[in-house]
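hiii so um. not sure if this is the right channel but i have a protein structure encoded as tokens and i wanna go backwards to a sequence. like what aa goes where. can anyone help
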């Protein structure tokens, strides 16, 4: 079976939606087109529910949420397109000073399993959420 994305390589990674124990549509991808780490990815129904934006509002401006955003303070933060774009701009602005450190860690090996890198990334993520909340409050948006 060929990859559903590139239509060139053999599909070796298969995603099947399972809702209430019933299998739904399947997507078949090759290792090059699948997201990183997809081969070991398993989402339980409670995790899939957290990714749904149905009936959720942006945590920053109150409009309909379009993306499940990020985990923050042990819960998922949802956002609209505009606030999501602004969040990532803030995140990158805060993360730039971390770049030399990360580049050094990459030379030493994988950064993905490095607890210090993970902690520093989470700290920047928290700062970005707080900064976006502050901007939203200044714009007069009510926040949870």
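sure thing!! here u go:
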């Amino acid at each position: 079976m060929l990859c559903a994305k590139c239509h060139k390589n053999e599909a070796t990674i298969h995603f099947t939606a399972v809702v209430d124990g019933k299998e739904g549509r399947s997507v078949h991808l090759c290792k090059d087109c699948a997201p990183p780490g997809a081969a070991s990815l398993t989402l339980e129904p409670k995790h899939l529910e957290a990714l749904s934006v149905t009936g959720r509002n942006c945590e920053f401006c109150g409009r309909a949420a379009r993306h499940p955003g990020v985990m923050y303070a042990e819960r998922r933060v949802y956002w609209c397109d505009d606030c999501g774009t602004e969040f990532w701009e803030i995140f990158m602005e805060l993360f730039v000073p971390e770049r030399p450190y990360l580049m050094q860690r990459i030379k030493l090996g994988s950064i993905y399993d490095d607890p210090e890198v993970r902690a520093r990334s989470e700290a920047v993520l928290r700062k970005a959420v707080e900064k976006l909340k502050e901007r939203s409050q200044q714009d007069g948006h009510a926040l949870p």
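oh and Residues 51 and 68 are 5 Å apart (CA to CA).
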